[in-house]
Design a protein that fits this description.
Layout (H helix, E strand, L loop, with lengths): L10 E8 L5 H12 L7 E8 L7 E5 L2 E4 L2 H15 E6 L2 E6 L1
Parallel strand pairs: 1-2
Antiparallel strand pairs: 1-3, 3-4, 5-6
Length: 100
């Protein structure tokens, strides 16, 4: 059961957390898309949740996999990339920025 699949019933738990509540149409589209990752005898058990801190997008947890497509994570990664590109050096009371 470490993979998150209830082997006895072929059930695969899936949790989708989005920044705003999903419409019924969105839920049906998600079920259809996520169902493509299942084997023929597996059944998707979809649970939805909302978390405004995601800002936008969603986080999908299916079986033992997690895919974070949230805006908050994209912003965090962008900030980290920019921080690693821009290094500040102190030289005689002056800050000089340079890019690597």
């Amino acid at each position: 059961k470490s993979s998150g699949i209830n082997a006895e019933y072929g059930e695969v738990p899936c949790k989708v957390t989005s920044a705003a509540p999903l419409s019924e149409a969105n839920v049906e589209t998600l079920k259809e898309s996520l169902g493509k990752f299942l084997k023929g005898n597996e059944k998707l058990l979809l649970e939805t949740a909302t978390d405004e801190s995601l800002i936008g997008g969603m986080v999908v947890e299916i079986g033992d996999k997690r895919v974070d497509m949230s805006t908050a994570t994209k912003i965090k990664k962008l900030k980290a990339s920019l921080a690693s590109l821009c290094k500040c050096v102190m030289t005689k009371k002056r800050i000089v920025r340079y890019y690597i």
